Amino acid sequence: MYITSGTSALLRRASHSSSSRAGKRVFSSLSKKPASPSPNSNSSHSVGNQQTRSLSYLSAARWSHGVDWKSPASLASQIRISSAFSDTLLHRKIATMASENAFKGIFTSLPKPGGGEFGKFYSLPALNDPRIDKLPYSIRILLESAIRNCDGFQVTKADVEKIIDWEKNSPNQVEIPFKPARVLLQDFTGVPVVVDLACMRNAMNKLGGDSDKINPLVPVDLVIDHSVQVDIARTENAVKENQKLEFERNKERFAFLKWGSNAFQNMLVVPPGSGIVHQVNLEYLARVVFNNEGLLYPDSVVGTDSHTTMIDGLGVAGWGVGGIEAEAAMLGQPMSMVLPGVVGFKLSGKLLDGVTATDLVLTVTQILRKHGVVGKFVEFYGAGVGEISLADRATIANMSPEYGATMGFFPVDKVTLQYLKLTGRSDETVSMIEAYLRANNMFVDYSEPQQERVYSSYLHLDLGDVVPCVSGPKRPHDRVPLKDMKDDWHSCLDSKVGFKGFAVPKETQEKVVKFLFKGEEPAELKHGSVVIAAITSCTNTSNPSVMLGAGLVAKKACELGLKVKPWVKTSLAPGSGVATKYLQESGLQKYLNEQGFNIVGYGCTTCIGNSGDLEKTVGDAITENDIVAAAVLSGNRNFEGRVHPLTRANYLASPPLVVAYAIAGTVNIDFDKEPIGVSKDGKDVYFRDIWPSNEEVAEVVQNSVLPEMFKSTYKAITTGNPVWNELAVAAEKLYSWDPTSTYIHEPPYFEGMTMDPPGPHGVKDAYCLLNFGNSITTDHISPAGSINRDSPAAKYLMERGVDSRQFNSYGSRRGNDEIMARGTFANIRILNKLLNGEVGPKTIHIPSGEKLTVFDAAMKYKSAGQDTIILAGDEYGSGSSRDWAAKGPMLLGVKAVIAKSFERIHRSNLVGMGIVPLCFKSGEDADTLGLTGHERYTIDLPSSVSDIRPGQDINVKTDTGKQFTCTVRFDTEVELAYFNHGGILQYVIRQLAAKQ
Questions:
Q1: Nearest 5°: phi and psi at 633?
Q2: CA atoms of 398 and 402, how far apart (whole Å)
């Protein structure tokens, strides 16, 4: 429920006063609000007409592309329908709600060119408000949603006015509600979401409520793509073998997800082996415009993966949220958000020959990081936008988290429509999409004069200024022009340990380590030797130009007699089966195979740390000789410790550059001046000899990427695969928890929960669990990769008879809170100031002075009844939208995090788990205030939520006498309500339980 400014204080007073009958009545009445209204009496809006969606019920008809996902007429043979009310009652209720929408006067018909109508919609031009004409396109989507869902309760006329007056309101931290059209999940984040939903059903039962109310009210798509690891590489059977291992390791998780697709309504699970979630979303799941039983509205999506923003390249408003926030959205809660500023990013000119979309996105990332776009939308416009392909736009939009924006948005234009047709959307669907967006002033036609739009700030990039580049060695926004790479590498070797430094002594920088690869073949490694080269990740594997460009590089290299050294672990993980089809159609896959880039699976693989083990002799050579080994990947994240524990240098590069660096075998090379290898006739071969021209790439794309590939690929995934289809699951609505399971475990979030909110908690005499510097990522806080054999999580597993070969990854075990709590702050590269320079997942237990694992120290504090806090620098929680990075600290007993700044999603996740986020005042941090982390901290929060305001200053005291002021980062009134209830999930359960 969205709390308007007029009701928020009333709700807070009611919800924290357990003794007030009147308060309880107010809370109950405010909870009993109708769902979003529609003036169309045939439009259900999910009220009592919810369906279960599972691939086993889907036929070749592609429901997500123009087929109404809620229409019994069109889907009766494909999905099961369960209705809580009769159709008569349903339509009567909708008709009643229709009259309540304050904007029913602008509800109008959208005619078809040949007669009849596509449906009805809320017309923004019919408002006749000149302010709307100047709104950024991304803000118009927020506006349409508010108008369509305006019921006077969850969304009010005042909320609509706030958005219309965006130009004046956006600088002022104005709060608005937003109801996304759908929710997108992947399995790493999806498993804990389904665990939470199953746990919430149990909690509803215990509170005497109806557990069936815990059901998604909007479409939920879950794509299993994060589980496959590169165990087997450089062989023809790698896909088959890796998928076999994936099912062996994850059978229990997959069965749980399959149970969820049956137990929960409106949930579609796309089986493993189908592709990467964001590419499947782009090519198949995205609607662009919904036609919901004749009601037309823009597609919009929130996802539990931060790279959900990739869909912004298709003109669909989408961004990443925490899993707990997504759960609330599934259950009908409007998302409370601050009306964002919008940075207008003008593109002009054209990319030069030899420059790729990856070079462009790394350049854009650096520009926007420097400008500062955290919490803002970025909207691309200008003639240059019309010069780049849809796939290139998706690549730029994908990396929104890396440049810090909520969205990187490209409005729909003719290029978008062409892509929709290419990917198999029907002509009628594309016609409907264009007609609706043109009628509602949401379509851009670069052949026509452009209406001037207002932006919060402006940037400009001439595409002709973009040069080939990589980013690294430890952060996505540390861009290095290719021509400067050798000099930058030597600078990194010289510099002190940090984001751009390894502190390798001069006298050892040129050392050569010779060894026998697999005990047989002579091999050698140096600082900068490439040991992992991976074409991977959603960022690039959706883009035919860079994928086929990689194939052309491999072809030219093969023809010249160049070959990747066998000790380089090469891999290719396409984002969908479509990429495989066009690589085979072009004849280029065989050349990639010759260079060791055999297809290893369909999933995220190396980009999320599922790179698999290095061959033992390679790993030993690195560790025994302290070699700074390198990975080059076409990914979006290269944070330290993420890609592989043994690759300290990790560079993001385009797929063609990944192949080039794999052939060179080192990042310590000047491609302009030094040969990349020696040809079969003994001549030096240079980078320019194997690099394709833009014309070569365009020709192979034109001839190889065909609409039928998309149609056949997505027709096939609806049938699943034999192993998935054979998974047997119970038909129960309540999950039967297995106490011996090491994958799925009932979390303790709702233990002892009552209908009375606990109210705000202050922090008294807390110890500092960890003291961090800048850029602590969610990978540091809650790693997704392999489980170290010396870790608390490993100990827990071994105590339960799990062999180390079956540890799997932290990401795959996110359904078990016992393991994830032990894996919190378990990154082996984490740097905690309490350890005085020592790197690793340990801390000092302040009362005893003992050095312990973070988990053991936290448990010692908890057993003594002592609160803990965390100190941090800038960008705390940057990286993936990982809810376990908030859940884990909560289970460790952390009550507050005091940082210089927070990443947007992570701050929201902390609030959702009841942890207080606090920001130091500008110019201050732990160091400037003289805080060592050995103090005890008291945070003076009011005991009544009605006395707390978003952005309020709070006093923090220490036992050493130091005091300082922080800003409490509850950014909206709704977040305060969550905090009052102990977290967002508790808030939702109490609200739903109150609806009797």
A1: -140, 150
A2: 9
